[in-house]
Design a protein that fits this description.
Layout (H helix, E strand, L loop, with lengths): L3 E4 L2 E4 L4 E7 L6 E7 L6 E6 L5 E3 L7 E6 L4 E6 L8 E8 L4 E2 L3 E6 L1
């Protein structure tokens, strides 16, 4: 079993920045990812990072968001810059298994 705890969400004005963190309860040898779910919408991929730190981004966040990981700290980060109101969502951390694990989510709200 793996527990994932996200933090760093909050309220920010458009154009601002936030950094999300996801701490795992043990070392993770899998790829990890950030997903988000806006009200009334399906959960969608934001970014993924492999164990060797290869990255992949959704087109909507390319050039604005950056995913990274610190394997020594069992932590994955999501640096979000130039935030837009449409980035408002609950952001979830995920271990890309199998098996898969999800965090509980952290709310990000971007005001216009």
């Amino acid at each position: 079993q793996v527990q994932l705890v996200e933090s760093g969400g909050g309220l920010v004005q458009a154009g601002g920045s936030l950094r999300l963190s996801c701490v795992a309860s043990r070392i993770i040898f899998n790829a990890m990812g950030w997903y988000r779910q806006a009200p009334g919408k399906q959960r969608e991929l934001v970014a993924t990072i492999s164990i060797m730190s290869g990255t992949n981004y959704a087109d909507s966040v390319k050039g604005r968001f950056s995913i990274s990981r610190d394997n020594a700290k069992n932590t994955v980060y999501l640096q979000m810059n130039s935030l837009k109101p449409e980035d408002t969502a609950v952001y979830y951390c995920k271990v890309l298994g199998p098996p898969e694990y999800w965090g509980q989510g952290t709310q990000v709200t971007v005001s216009s």
